[in-house]
Write a structure and sequence with these properties.
By secondary structure, the chain is α+β, with helices and mostly antiparallel strands. Helices cover about 25% and strands about 20% of the residues. A three-stranded antiparallel β-sheet has the order 1-2-3. Strands 4-5 form a two-stranded antiparallel ribbon. The radius of gyration is 29 Å and the shape is elongated.
Length: about 140
C-alpha cells in the first residue's frame, strides 16, 4: 500500500505551525512552564474554567432556621426569580457555625424532588374505608 505524502508550501507550513502554537499556548500546563508559575493561580485555568461561575451568583439570600429538629441551626436560602437555588448552613449562626445535620443538608432535595407529594391523603373515620385526596395549604412564609 502506498502512502501519499503531501508537500506543503512554506506559507502553508507557517500557517499550520502558527495554529499549532496557538492551540498549545491554551493548555494550562504549558502556560505554567512558560511563565515559571507553580500552578496555583490563574495560569492553571483554561478559558472554559475562567468562564464558569457559581450557581448562586446573582441570587438573593434569606436567613432561616432549619425546621427538622429543635436545635435551631441557621440556614442560608438562595433564591432567584421566585425559584429555590440552594440551601446551605449559615456560618454566622452561633449554634451550627455553618454546619448542618444530614436532615438539614437534605433540605433542598426534600423541597425540590420531582416525586415530592403535594397533596395529603386522608382517610375517613376509624372503620370507614372511604378516603380522598386534598391539596396541602400553601406554606408561604414572609421574610423581613
Amino acid at each position: 500500500m502506498k502512502f501519499l505524502k503531501l508537500e506543503l508550501s512554506a506559507q502553508a507550513k507557517s500557517v499550520e505551525m502558527t495554529r499549532m502554537l496557538e492551540l498549545l499556548s491554551k493548555w494550562p500546563l504549558l502556560r505554567q512552564i512558560r511563565e515559571r508559575k507553580d500552578g496555583t493561580g490563574l495560569e492553571s485555568m483554561s478559558n472554559k474554567t475562567r468562564a464558569m461561575h457559581a450557581r448562586i451568583d446573582g441570587a438573593k439570600v434569606a436567613r432561616s432556621i432549619c425546621p427538622y429538629c429543635g436545635v435551631g441551626c441557621g440556614q442560608l436560602i438562595y433564591h432567584k426569580d421566585g425559584k429555590l437555588i440552594s440551601i446551605e448552613g449559615d456560618p454566622e449562626s452561633p449554634i451550627s457555625q455553618g454546619n448542618l445535620c444530614p436532615k438539614g443538608a437534605a433540605s433542598y432535595q426534600l423541597l425540590t424532588h420531582s416525586q415530592r407529594q403535594a397533596h395529603l391523603h386522608q382517610t375517613g373515620e376509624r372503620g370507614n374505608n372511604q378516603s380522598h385526596d386534598c391539596d396541602l395549604p400553601s406554606r408561604r412564609r414572609h421574610t423581613r
